[in-house]
DNA sequence: ATTAAAATTGTAATCATTACAAACTTGAAG
DNA sequence: CTTCAAGTTTGTAATGATTACAATTTTAAT
């Protein structure tokens, strides 16, 4: 599936900017911030505005074509993979890694928890990632 | 346990400001923002500075005497209850509710997940809370 | 009392995000 | 083709939470 199909599938009218941003999300699994998306695309689309990046990412999230991660208190991160999975934030390198969802499968299907209507599940883990731990042990 | 004991237990030297802020966290289960803590205390401690509230809450979190919740992209919230539990953010009223931790108990004790050293677990749920759903159904 | 370290304060800066209005595109209708 | 309105993009300016920093105050030991 390409970016064009992905957008139309989620009811988003495609445009050059929207396709470029969706394309970026679909090919990079780095959970970028809005600024990182902007920086990556502003060379190929010189007229791109940061406002457009913010607006577009917000649109994707509203249409559920992307996830907004609040794992990091400094910046919001975005994820083009909307399947149920968890995230790990490394305190050292700041990267966000994917983890399999380890909650009870039943819970993920539940619409209600303790009387509250659940629409989104976010499982975040923080610590030192594998790569940073290994780099440290090398001395 | 009072605020004084709680602070010393976590290796934090008590002061009027620190005790007031810890006392507030220990008696309010609203997961306040730094600003809410400041607003609640600035009447009784008229000289209180917002910087002190930010510094003190950060100190509590560093000493693991409080949790920093990044469930809301607008504001960081704080929680004086450091036991393992989950949180629910209501999209309507904006309140953060406590939920029991529903992950596998085994996982909570694991230090490693997929090679990453886990130091913090945050399980966040978002949707419409019980109170807001009921209020809506009354018409 | 003295004094150095620690804590608090107020102001100013930072910086991610949003508001807003102008400019541009698009696509349908004539 | 034009025209026009709706939707999209853009740049600039504002917002608002958080932090930096330097000055002041407090603490606790000598």
Instruction: Give the helix proportion of chain A (percent range).
Output: 25-40%
The CATH H-level superfamily of the largest domain in chain A is Winged helix-like DNA-binding domain superfamily/Winged helix DNA-binding domain
> For the largest interface in this structure, which chains are involved and how many residues does each contribute?
A-B, 35 and 35 residues
In CATH terms, what is the fold-level topology of the largest domain in chain A? Arc Repressor Mutant, subunit A
Q: How would you characterize the overall build of this protein?
A:
The structure is a homodimer of 139-residue chains. In chain A, 38% of the residues lie in helices and 23% in strands. By secondary structure, chain A is α+β, with helices and mostly antiparallel strands. Chain A folds into two domains: 1-81, Arc Repressor Mutant, subunit A, CATH 1.10.10; 83-139, 2-Layer Sandwich (Dna Ligase, domain 1), CATH 3.30.1490. Chain A contains six helices and six strands; from the N terminus they run H-H-H-H-E-E-E-E-H-E-E-H. In chain A, a hairpin with a 5-residue loop joins strand 3 and strand 4. Chain A starts with a helix and ends with a helix. Chain A has helices at residues 3-9, 16-27, 34-41, 50-62, 105-109, 130-137; strands spanning 67-69, 77-79, 85-90, 96-100, 112-113, 116-128. The model of chain A has no long low-confidence stretch (mean pLDDT 95). A four-stranded mixed sheet of chain A has the order 4-3-6-5. The first copy, chain A, has a two-stranded antiparallel sheet with strand order 1-2. The interface between A and B is medium-sized, with 35 and 35 residues. Strand 6 (116-128) of chain A pairs antiparallel with strand 6 (116-128) of chain B, so a sheet runs across the interface.
């Amino acid at each position: 599936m390409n970016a064009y199909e992905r957008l139309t599938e989620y009811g988003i009218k495609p445009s050059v900017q929207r396709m470029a941003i969706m394309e970026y999300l679909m090919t990079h699994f780095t959970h970028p911030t809005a600024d990182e998306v902007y920086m990556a695309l502003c060379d190929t689309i010189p007229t791109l505005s940061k406002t457009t990046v913010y607006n577009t990412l917000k649109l994707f999230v509203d249409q559920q074509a992307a996830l907004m991660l609040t794992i990091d208190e400094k910046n919001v991160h975005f994820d083009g993979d909307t399947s149920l999975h968890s995230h790990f934030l490394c305190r050292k390198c700041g990267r966000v890694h994917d983890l399999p969802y380890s909650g009870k499968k039943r819970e993920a299907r539940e619409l209600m928890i303790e009387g509250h209507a659940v629409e989104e599940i976010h499982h975040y883990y923080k610590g030192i990632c594998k790569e940073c731990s290994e780099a440290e042990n090398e001395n």
